[in-house]
Every structure is written in C-alpha cells, then in structure tokens.
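User: Predict the complex with zinc ion.
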Amino acid sequence: MNPFDTIEKWIKEHGSASILRDHVALLKEQMSNLERENLSLKVKLHNTETERDDYKNKADGFADEQPAETCPYCHRATLRLIEIKPNPNPHFAMMGFKQRYYKCGNPSCGQAYDKSVNPEG
Ligand SMILES: [Zn+2]
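Assistant: Here is the predicted structure with zinc ion placed in the model:
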C-alpha cells in the first residue's frame, strides 16, 4: 500500500481536516525520505558506473595486450602485434589489405613475423 492509498483510505473513513493535515505531513516526510534515498542511489549508481568504466578500460587494454597469434617459430602464443601497415603489395594495399608486424615475446625465440590480413582484419 503506497502513501496515497493510505491517505485516501483515511479521508474516506475519517474525512476530518486535522487527520488530513497529519497525513499530508506524513506524506511529506515519506516523500523527503524517498528523495534522500533517490539521491543516495544516484550517487551509488554514478560510482558504480565509474567503477564499471574503469574495469572496462582495463579489460580493453588487457585484450590489446593479448597475443593475437601463435608464433610460427616456437609455437607459443607469445606473438606481440608491433604495428599494422598497408600491404607492401600495392595491388593488395589498394584493396585495403594490411600487413601486421609481430615480434615473438618468447626470450629464447624473439623472431619477427609479418602477416597479410584482409581489410576486416
Ligand atoms: Zn617464437
């Protein structure tokens, strides 16, 4: 039962101005409590959204750090993407093909590796 139901019930049953005044006061108090609660929830929501965005940024950064490929020399998932350039073949470059330059992060390998990728890659 919300405050408005309560006040309507009281008006029907008791219809007196003093009771009505009491209930308006009660209603104002409840409204003010709800406003405080609403403000507090807005602050919590804002803080939670900020925290979520921080985690999201961290997760995006983490995904960027992940090796995209397994090293063809040592077969470990240690290839790091160094840079993406237009494909060295001008015909492929015109079609939007790129060349991805990788370097193996495995200290006992350290090979460089490049790979042609399609325009979506
Ligand atoms: Zn390697």
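DSSP finds three helices and three strands in the chain.
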